[in-house]
Structures are given as C-alpha cells and as structure tokens.
Write a structure and sequence with these properties.
Chain lengths: 213, 213
Amino acid sequence: VKLVKYEKPISGAVIRRLPRYYRYLSTLKEMGISKVSSKDMGNRMGITSSQVRQDFFCFGGYGLQGYGYDVEFLHEEIGKILGIGTTKQMIIIGAGSLGQALAKHKGFEKRGFKIIAIFDVKSELLGEKINEHEIMHLDQLSDFVANNQVDIAALAVPDNFGREVAGLVTRLGIKAIWNFAAIELNTPEDVIVESIHLIDSLIVLGYNLENKK
Amino acid sequence: VKLVKYEKPISGAVIRRLPRYYRYLSTLKEMGISKVSSKDMGNRMGITSSQVRQDFFCFGGYGLQGYGYDVEFLHEEIGKILGIGTTKQMIIIGAGSLGQALAKHKGFEKRGFKIIAIFDVKSELLGEKINEHEIMHLDQLSDFVANNQVDIAALAVPDNFGREVAGLVTRLGIKAIWNFAAIELNTPEDVIVESIHLIDSLIVLGYNLENKK
DNA sequence: TAGATTGTTAATCGATTAACAATC
DNA sequence: TAGATTGTTAATCGATTAACAATC
C-alpha cells in the first residue's frame, strides 16, 4: 500500500508550477494525447525532467515506470490538489477599465472562480451592468458580505486607495485578496494576499531587455 | 576608490525585488522622509534586513554605516539600475477589455513605458480611439514596425491566438514580449518574455486560501 | 528480455540568514 | 566616546539537478 505523502507542507515554488502543468495537460487532453513523459513536460516548460518528477513525487508520484504519466489522470489529480472544480466566489472592487476587464474575463469561471459582484464609488458608474452584474456602491459592500459567501476580493482600485480598501475588506472578514494595486499590503496573518504588480513586471521585462540575460 | 561590482550577473530574485524597493522609496520621498534603514525596508516588505543589505551590496552598497540609506540617492540609483527614465516604446496587441485596460493604465508612462499603438483584427473595433491612439488592423503591424521603434509588444489576445501572434511579433524583430495569454511561449533565445498568468495567480491564491499557509 | 521512464536518494547549487568587524 | 547601522564574509537553508535502482 502506498501512502500519499502529505506530511510536510509543499513549497510555494512547487505550487506555482502546478497551474502551468495543469494548463499543459489541458492542452494535451484537448489534442487527444493520453500519455506524457517528464521529459516532454520539462521541454515544454523549460525545466528539467528531474524537476517535473520531483514535483509530482511531493504528492506521492502519479506515474508508471517505463511508461510515463497518464494525461487524464495526472490532469485530474493536479486539479484536485489545486482545488479546481470547487467554486470560490469573488467580488471585484473598482470598476475602472481594469476591474471591468477582470469582470469580463472568460477564463476565471471555467476554473471555479465565480464573480458575484462589482463595487465602485463613482456615482456615474453605479447601476451600469458588466456581464450580468450591476455595479454597486462600496457602501453596500458590508450588507453584501453579510448576505453572501465572499471568498475572494479582487482589488482593482487606484494605488492610493489600496490600503484603505484592503482594510475595509479584511474588517468585513474576507480572507483572500487578489491585489492589483502597486502597493505592499499589511494584512492580518490569516488573510491571504496574492498581488499582481503590473508595473513591476514591466520594469523587470525592461531590465532584462537592456541586460540581455 | 570603491568600484561598483558588475562582475557577475545579478540574480533574477534580486532584480524582482528592486521594483518593490523602488516603489517604497518613491513613497518615502513623497512623504519627505530622507533616510531609511535596511531594517525599516525589510519590515515593510516582509523580508530580513540582512537580505536588503545583501541586495544593495550586489551593486556595491549605497549606504552609510551607522546611518542608513539616503532615500533620494538610493531611489535614484535603483532607478538607474532598472533603467527607469529611459523611454521604451510599447505596442498593445488585442484591443479587448484587457488590452484597453492596459492602454488606459496611467502608471506605465510614468515609469518610461510609452504606449504608441494598439492593434486588433476585429473590424468593429478598428478606428476606435483609446486615449489618443486609434485601433489599427493587425495587417498594418508590419508597416508600423518598419517605421517606428517598437521595444515591447504586450500580448492581450485570446489564448488560442497567442502562439501565432508571438510568432508574428518575433518575425518582425521585436525583442520583448509582455504576455497575458495563458500559454507557454517558445520564442527565440534573444527574445525576452515576461508573462502575467492571471489564472495561475488566482489558482495559487485559491490554493493558499484552502491550505492556509 | 531489452528498453524506457519513473520513484527516490544523494549531490550540487544558489539564495537567504546570521554574525560581526568596520566606521559613521 | 557610545550607539547605530552598514558592508561583507561565513553558515544555513532550501530548491534544483544528477544519478541510478526499481519496475513496467
């Protein structure tokens, strides 16, 4: 009997590779390919086959010696680890162009992230509909959170409002923030923050371009 | 005489922290604070003071023993390393909601990234103006690149067009791609790719929420 | 069986942290 | 001078890679 190894927490570096494996496996599935080797996966992703095997080994290993990995099975198992398929409800705060773009994005719902409301403070935006959701005033957030399960708040507000809105959101008990403001957030320990710093990413790109890796 | 140490290439991990230092120093400057210690910076960013000093030491050290770092000077030096202030010209491919949000974003130009054109293939979008730029047809890209300095192409196209558009862009000689499609790009060695995988980020957030770090 | 490829341990590499002398 | 904080080396920690036995 082989036991799955959940003893020690999985490192963040491994977790961040899982969505990439998952996407690649989705592609293979669509193409009707049923098996894949660690070498194939590594080549595609620019990492070593050794790292691929090591990553899966963290969870007990999903392959068959001499054969490789079954695409369908591996896809499903990684999906389970990542919690894809369990629906999480998300609100978007900030209905500017970025907030609206997030609200309209197709890919999130497919992976279990359901957008259930959009908030802003600008009166001229209120009542406008993005997809099926009317933009609500931020004053209504408290009531909304009291009456709905909100798992994640996406912050697409101007940088200088980020701290304030993050404070509000955590006071209301929301435990996960997807932050797009170019600021550092200091949130309570039990609140998970994941930031997308667009400008940082662009600056690193500019640096690498000038200093050709 | 102290020589700046440019002997070995700086690790990517260090470079990715520089924009964060830079942003923090910008804030301090605005607040009129003139000195900062490695301890202050570390606390703010959730890293050790040792790491902060080690990072700056890569470039020869910018501080004064017993005092700390001069905010204005450090800000300027990090800016120089990152190449902030040298203008880079960027085009956006894909004028959907995400492409438009990028085009409208205020923060890029401030850091030297100038958006000079937007392209799409949908005829109903052509001619529409985003900021001062008219949306052009992708067929015009080749001419445009021939007549303008294009440093960076931001790819905000549907995932299934990503590879094709990346191929086009590299064939036209553009050396840096800021990729928003949820795909792995295989580009020539001399092309720099920086990807923002929104869905990956969201999935990791969901994972961390379920598995409370 | 021969060939292929994983599972798994060990070795290496690189990044982070600790420590403290230097010096403002 | 005493106190503070960097510059810099060494120690530690963690992540990646190599290697190969296991086994399909």
